[in-house]
Amino acid sequence: MDGVTKKQYREALEVAHRHALSWLDSLPDRPIRPDLDVDGVLARLERGLPEDGSEPRDVVEELVAASEPGLMAMGSPRFYGFVIGGAYPAAVAADWLVAAWDQNTGSRQPTPATAAVEEVAGGWLLDLLGLPAESGVGFVTGGTTANLACLVAARDAVLRRAGADPAAGLQQAPSIRFLAGDAVHTSMQLAGRIAGLGLPRTVGADDQGRIDVAGLERALAEGTGPTIVALQAGDVHSGAFDDFAAAVEVSHRAGAWVHVDGAFGLWAAASPRLKHLVAGLADADSWATDAHKTLNVPYDCGVAIVRDEAAMTASLGAHAAYLPAVASVPDPYDRVPELSRRARGVPVWAALRSLGRQGVVRLVDGLADAAAALAAGFQAVPGLEVLNDVPFTQVCLATRDDATTAALGEWLRDEGTVWASSSTWRGRTVVRFAVSNHGTDSEAVRRTIDAVTRGAAALGIGG
What we know:
The protein is an alpha/beta fold. It has helices at residues 6-26, 38-44, 56-67, 89-101, 112-129, 143-161, 186-194, 213-221, 244-253, 309-316, 345-379, 402-415, 442-458, and strands at residues 136-140, 177-180, 201-202, 227-232, 257-261, 286-290, 302-306, 385-386, 394-398, 421-425, 428-434.
């Protein structure tokens, strides 16, 4: 096939549209687990590259036939694994348009429409989350990359404060202290490694994963020089939030840069009922979140936010003679570690425009309410125990012993009504329910509790 016609675009997109709607319609009731594993899907795919091409509509049909049995129903309101949200209709539709428009949203000059939409979305995010209006906002691939972008800006800023030139490289720079609580997330650890900071030194945490502020203060007092402190909004197991007011104060007193990993928990700041969980958070220096988690937009949408936009652009900005630029106005690629990228902030704009401020409040409060309802329902089942305090959206469930808890997790995932992650927390095996989907309503909660109750009975738990 050499030429491409309008008819081929139309036919391929019509096939994709039909299958996409069929998939979305199936989510409330289909089993969440995939029917095929990777090897099963590979057996359905042509492994050698064909010599001749195929009609676009046929390619899409082939892709769906091979892939759908291996798809996890991650958009189900009863999917609780990995802190993954669903996707709102306006955000999905906007994401389709982003692909069709095919705008490389790196520069404001050649792509004014998508750059403008992203700038508005960034401003709305700062407003919703109560963060400084002058902050720089960059749309990146996910939480790890958002943490990375912020840590790179932090690294360079603390080196400049120490009189070093970040452009000379870390080999010529003074050592940077990188501190975090014991429950620091793996994405922060990975971002620190990529940024050249190494793994953070941990300073202690309480039984819910909140950073030990006294331990942090002692660690800060042990030395001087450039320092970065990582805090978190929402522990991945307990949902607990660090004491930002105290931790930021002692960190700033020691001259440290404070970064907040708020992959899902940063959104508590949007809720009048829950914003007490993030008191003092806005005094930090940078923040990272994932819009595909709590905000429920499609994948590939992390958000990096840095209070000092000039520090952000100094570290991440790109400069070349062929790159168009407007003097004194940062381009999108000045706030992310990419030159070429899709307009991933457009679905964020669509979700926020669709929901409005009060819709976001209802979303965040609804997720927290669903988690609380799950915890209460689980506690009523003999032999089950909820191990965490459930301040936000995470619920960690355990039984009489680790082997039985692991078996319950396997039973649930095999049965298919519910998918929750198994993990280890505070030395015990747990089944972790992360409530992230806007569709997790009272009926989804009821069906989840029913599935867990049936699983407990099948395994003789509480009998």
